[in-house]
Amino acid sequence: MVVGKSRQNSGKLFIISAPTGAGKTTLTNLIISRNPQVKRAITYTTRKPRPGEQDTIDYHFVTEATFLKLMNKNFFLETTKYDESWYGSPCDILEDVSNGAFYIIITDWPGAQTISGELSSRHPHISFKAIWITVPSRDLLVERLKYRYTHDISALERRLKLFDDEIDRENREAFFKHHIINDELEATYQKLCSVLELATTSD
């Protein structure tokens, strides 16, 4: 991995946020596969695993009781409830970043705002970037989500409502400095690498 403009032995935290179905997890996995020094912060969640997802690899899948216990112990850097499920980013990665590690946190719009505020106010020594990823059109998103929620129309409708709310919020508040439209995977990967100052080799 090549990281430009970063101080030697200085890590960085990349906050990648996007509406549901915009491809943030796919892009993150591609970054990690091609830049092995970049790690993904494994989020804790109370939702059920989707087909193919593995515990401790894709998420830490826990019960709501366990999640709330961890929350009360200040285990998380941020928490959010999204589509009826809890999500939380572990705060122990900050020590790793301080020691030179590179991490990606995947979160929603409120989570990105919370993490950014926490870092700016309480951990100013940690370098970070927040990136917003979206899709070219709502129609494309509908097509993507139809495959994910084929047998759960109510979940599809909830996710589309969340998408609309997050898009409207970012349009109003313009929180993210970096915006990337995920129209074609490889081209989007190249643009994301440019923002993150990563090498764009596919080796």
Largest sheet: 5 strands, parallel
Topology as a string of helices (H) and strands (E):
EHEEEHEEHEHEHHEH
Strand content: 15-25%
What characteristic shape results from the CA principal axes?
globular
Read across the widest sheet, the strand sequence of neighbours is: 2-7-1-8-9
Could you list the spans in which at least 5 consecutive residues all have pLDDT below 50?
1-8
The total of beta strands comes to 9
- The CATH first-level class comes to Alpha Beta
Features:
single chain, 203 residues, alpha/beta, Rossmann fold, five-stranded parallel β-sheet, four-stranded mixed β-sheet, 41% helix, disordered N terminus
How are the SSEs placed, and which strands pair?
Elements: E1 12-17, H1 24-34, E2 38-40, E3 44-45, E4 60-61, H2 64-72, E5 76-82, E6 85-90, H3 93-98, E7 102-107, H4 109-122, E8 128-134, H5 138-148, H6 153-173, E9 178-181, H7 185-196
Parallel strand pairs: 1-7, 1-8, 2-7, 3-4, 8-9
Antiparallel strand pairs: 3-6, 5-6
Notes on the protein architecture:
About 30% of the residues are buried. This protein has a single domain (about 25-195), classed as Rossmann fold (3-Layer(aba) Sandwich), CATH 3.40.50. A 5-stranded parallel beta sheet has the order 2-7-1-8-9. Strands 4-3-6-5 form a 4-stranded mixed beta sheet. It has about 200 residues and is α/β, with parallel strands linked by helices. The protein has helices at about 25-35, 65-70, 95-100, 110-120, 140-150, 155-175, 185-195, and strands at about 10-15, 40, 45, 60, 75-80, 85-90, 100-105, 130-135, 180. The chain is built from 7 helices and 9 strands, in the order E-H-E-E-E-H-E-E-H-E-H-E-H-H-E-H.
